[in-house]
């Protein structure tokens, strides 16, 4: 896996993934930015949410659950000192579908957290306390 991050100006950077996708990152005005893009630490949270959500949906589909939507609401706390690392992250999954089984959704969230989500496992290994929960929105 490869990526490139190029400085544009001020606190603005352009990141390009090895697959050819780009994203603008920028800082707030009080740190030399213009607020034209996402903050780098926000990118980490989005990566974690994307990785976990991918796992949850994939696992549910493999168990023949009729998933119609999945979103994860992420809240995080950072240290007050420099470096302002994440200390706690909570992922709240909202899974929608038809006749979803609570046991299957719980297992998908657990498997993502403990076995499949590389981002989650990596952050936990660095000392971040990550918690998960879920709710089911049944569309029957």
UniProtKB/TrEMBL annotation:
Family annotation (SUPFAM superfamilies): OsmC-like
Domain of life, source organism: Bacteria
InterPro entries listed in its UniProt record: KH_dom-like_a/b, OsmC/Ohr_fam, OsmC/Ohrsf
Protein name: OsmC family protein
Lineage of the organism: Bacteria, Pseudomonadati, Pseudomonadota, Gammaproteobacteria, Cellvibrionales
């Amino acid at each position: 896996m490869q990526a490139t991050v190029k400085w544009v100006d001020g606190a603005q950077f352009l990141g390009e993934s090895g697959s050819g996708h780009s994203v603008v990152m920028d800082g707030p005005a009080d740190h030399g930015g213009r607020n034209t893009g996402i903050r780098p630490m926000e990118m980490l949270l989005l990566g974690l949410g994307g990785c976990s959500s991918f796992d949850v949906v994939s696992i549910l589909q493999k168990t023949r659950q009729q998933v119609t939507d999945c979103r994860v609401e992420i809240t995080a706390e950072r240290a007050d000192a420099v470096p302002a690392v994440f200390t706690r992250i909570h992922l709240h999954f909202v899974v929608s579908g038809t006749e979803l089984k609570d046991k299957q959704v719980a297992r998908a969230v657990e498997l993502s957290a403990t076995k499949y989500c590389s981002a989650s496992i990596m952050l936990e290994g660095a000392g971040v306390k990550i918690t998960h929960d879920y709710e089911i929105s049944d569309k029957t």
